[in-house]
Amino acid sequence: MSIKELLFAVADIWMIAVGFTYGIKFIRKYKNYLLGIEWIIVATSGSNFLIYGLVKAGHDSPMYAFAYFLDAFSRSVGITLILVLGLMKVTHRYKPSAAVDIGAFALAGVVGFLLSQFAVEIGLPGKIFYIVVNVLTTIFLIYFVKRLWGIDERGHAISAAVATACGFVIAATYDFVHIPGDDAEHTIFYIFALSTWGLQMFTYYRAYRAFDAYNKRVDAQAVSGSAPATA
Questions:
Q1: Distance in angstroms (rounded) separating the CA atoms of residues 155 and 1
Q2: For the CA atoms of the chain, what is the radius of gyration?
Q3: Which of 79, 109, 199, 219 is 20 to 30 A from 36 via CA?
Q4: Among 48, 102, 100, 99, which residue's Cα sits nearest to residue 71?
């Protein structure tokens, strides 16, 4: 195994570990099925991608088709609309119904299928779509960072800002930039991408936890009659 392949495996394992660990915690601790299931889906995608890379399966492998679908699933709706709806549980006290949860994942499944199965036919508009939804998500994440700063969770605000900036760079270059010296499988790019996606999931979970703790303090202060802190 080359150094490049080793770094790819380490980055992927990092993302897998973060996705499964914090995905389960989102569900168990906060009953946030949107973020929990999406984190687990990303980790599942990473697991499939790791096996695909280690066995050096070809593009005709079912693992490649599965990886392509899960990638489209998360890039289109998963780490965009589902991420925003999940974070709104702490920013806006939003409580999605089971129908919203199911509908969001169903939408992600349909859009992911279409974008993965008809990528060639869709062409450039599909690639532009990924960037547009990422820009819209990034705008919300900037708001999320601002809210964290406003409740004096400045360490989490800075961490979330860095993770968001890195994620935006990855999304903006995904389909349009080829790193000089990279191979046909874009191994170098994926080392950076997998590391970044793991960082995002890790950072957003910790920021969510801090925001949730703040909300609980505000609720406790309201019950006791003391003046709550302002965000």
A1: 38
A2: 18
A3: 219
A4: 48
Please say whether the beta carbons of 189 and 169 come within 8 A: no
Long-range contacts of 91-95 (CB under 8 A, 24+ apart): 91/143, 91/144, 91/147, 91/211, 93/215
Q: What residues contact 32, with CB distance under 8 A and at least 6 apart?
A: 26, 86, 89, 208
d(CA 9, CA 28): 28
pTM for the full predicted model = 0.93
Residue 96 backbone zone (phi > 0: left; psi -120 to 50: alpha; other: beta): beta
For residue 230, the SS3 value is coil
